[in-house]
Write a structure and sequence with these properties.
Low-confidence stretches: 57-65
Number of domains: 2
Helix content: 25-40%
Largest sheet: 10 strands, mixed
Order of helices and strands: EHHEEHEHEHEEEHEEHEHEHEHHHEE
Shape: elongated
CATH class of the largest domain: Alpha Beta
CATH architecture of the largest domain: 3-Layer(aba) Sandwich
Radius of gyration: 22 Å
Length: 298
């Protein structure tokens, strides 16, 4: 008999679902070891835990209320090229619905996703996401973890025959906007304020683009001259790029889905050499603090 129990074995032993075991492990309420991304439970310590503490009867006090059940296995919110790639390559089976950071907040609050990608500027572009999450989710069992720091700036075609360093330099050019729910538009408002400009000072085209990739594609195709996007997308389409701000892209996730197999599969993949290599190849990413916790709800 093995000295360790798997998640499935412990769930059968306790007569609960595996999801409940992940939840208890995540809350630190039972003995657990993490080995190469897997959860293993020392049999002797589990037996002592059941006898001494009353086991499940004392493992779920009111202040550790569970996350909502049956959430759609979807990551919503802001678009990120590296995250989009990792969801596919990790075979996590997590779907993506990237329609803007504010849309992700709305879907998260409405229990319409397991996680949301956020890059919401605060304090004049000096901080990101935490105050917003604390205000809207302060009493919820959610965690805000860092995905990456990424460089955002002005992307444009080299055939314009000019160097663009600031928003003031683009007022006579066709500017490509994003949807109002996007974190990019929030960052744009902060950058315009920093330069003493308003959005009406820009020659915005009528259409909007709903992702970082679509924004770069529109400029590369000549439908607009310049836009505010991430360096990774500018590189993908061989566009010129002038950095304006480094933003932090975080994942807001309900605590229980964090420990479920799909998200754990994604997290394990992010520790791989292929993930690190991809982040480097895309450019404009700093993933050294990936996984750092910036907010932890009750």
């Amino acid at each position: 008999m093995s000295e360790f129990l798997t998640t499935r074995e412990l769930a059968a032993m306790l007569r609960v679902k595996e999801r409940k075991v992940y939840d208890l492990a995540g809350k630190g309420l039972l003995p657990v070891r993490r080995v190469t991304g897997k959860l293993l439970f020392p049999r002797d310590e589990i037996n002592e835990w059941i006898v001494s503490s009353g086991g499940l009867d004392k493992a779920a006090p009111r202040e550790l209320a569970e996350s909502p059940t049956a959430l759609p296995v979807v990551i919503a919110g802001g678009h990120d090229p590296l995250l989009e790639w990792a969801l596919r390559e990790s075979r996590s089976e997590i779907a993506a619905l990237f329609d803007g950071a504010l849309d992700g907040l709305r879907r998260g609050a409405g229990e319409g996703c397991i996680a949301a990608g956020l890059h919401i500027p605060e304090s004049g572009l000096n901080s990101w996401n935490v105050a917003t999450v604390a205000k809207l989710f302060g009493d919820k069992p959610v965690v805000l973890i860092e995905w990456a720091k990424r460089t955002r700036g002005l992307m444009y075609r080299s055939d314009l025959g000019r160097s663009i360093k600031s928003l003031a330099d683009v007022r006579d050019l066709r500017f490509q906007p994003r949807q109002p729910e996007s974190g990019s538009e929030l960052a744009l408002a902060g950058l315009l304020q920093r330069e003493g400009l308003q959005k009406k000072d820009l020659r915005c085209v009528d259409a909007i683009e709903r992702s970082e990739t679509d924004l770069a594609m529109a400029i590369a195709a000549g439908r607009a001259d310049v836009g505010l996007g991430v360096e990774a997308s500018a590189r993908q389409f061989q566009l010129e790029f002038s950095a304006l701000v480094v933003e932090r892209f975080d994942l807001l996730i309900w605590r229980k889905p964090y420990f479920d197999p799909p998200f754990q599969k994604l997290i394990r993949f992010c520790a791989s050499e292929s993930f690190r290599r991809r982040a480097h190849e895309l450019g404009g990413y700093d993933i050294t603090e990936l996984g750092a916790v910036h907010f932890n709800g009750p």
